[in-house]
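Moderator note: this is an archived Q&A kept for reference. The question asked for a predicted structure of one protein chain; the sequence and the answer are reproduced below.
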Amino acid sequence: MVIHKLFSCFSVYLNMLKIAWSQIYHHPLPDNHRFPMEKYSLLPEQLIYEGTIKENQLFSPSALPEKAVLRTHQEEYWNKLKNLQLSKQEERKTGFPLSSSLVEREITIMNGTLEAARFAAEYGVAMNIAGGTHHAFTNRGEGFCLLNDLAIAARELQHEGLARKCLIVDLDVHQGNGTAEIFQNDASVFTFSMHGQSNYPLHKELSDLDIALPDKSGDDYYLNLLDHHLRSVFDDFQPDFILYQCGVDVLESDKLGRLNLSLEGCKQRDKLVLELAKNNKVPLVAAMGGGYSEDIKLIIEAHANTFRMATEIYF
């Protein structure tokens, strides 16, 4: 079977972490827009500058084929999106001004996570500088998410025979409501979301497991709870692939977060997830998710820690 063949290669990792990135990720936005788009240029620059990665570890994904979009999203919605026919209300819910270049960016990011997932299936781990667009539903976008890269990658891995049972570990401060809706009737994908109870979205969808946290949870409470529930889910579900949404809006410094994790706590969160996957020989792909600290340096540092930890654990 294909999956077993891939597992036989697991001990022979690439000598480098493969990372999806394209200049198109850094999309121009109106002045004073609250989304920190510049992080998609600053993060790879920082990782290369400090020596965590080399430039040849970055690969530039192509645009996602339409057939892959339609295995996850409704055709009516996709047609409205690609033809720039969203209503003003639908556009406002996404948080971005709609344009052909924005749609091109989105389908490039989608394929970035998918192509990284294929690398992970063969070599154990891979990552996307962007992605984690967990607020995109089958039929709409919201919260800076137009299409759902985690869902698309899971569906395509299954379609290609590279995975049977996918575990989506969503540790962004906001519930993965779109992901939960997409897989609400699919037992082959387990959705685990650990998020702020009183945070966006106001109406939560039903994940397979939702852990809703109070404000000011802090490192110890958060990490102990994550360790317990993640291991329990892993043992019970026994996934053969993990898709990890590692948003850094859990930080104490985050304008939208309120969970009060330190940089070190956020780093230990990543360590828990990555070590669980590595020790159990389950491939993992990571997508970055959100981060809204006032100081962009804190966002970059927290995201960079995820790549540092992956490099330390796997290579």
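Archived answer notes: Residues 1-13 have pLDDT under 50 and may be disordered.
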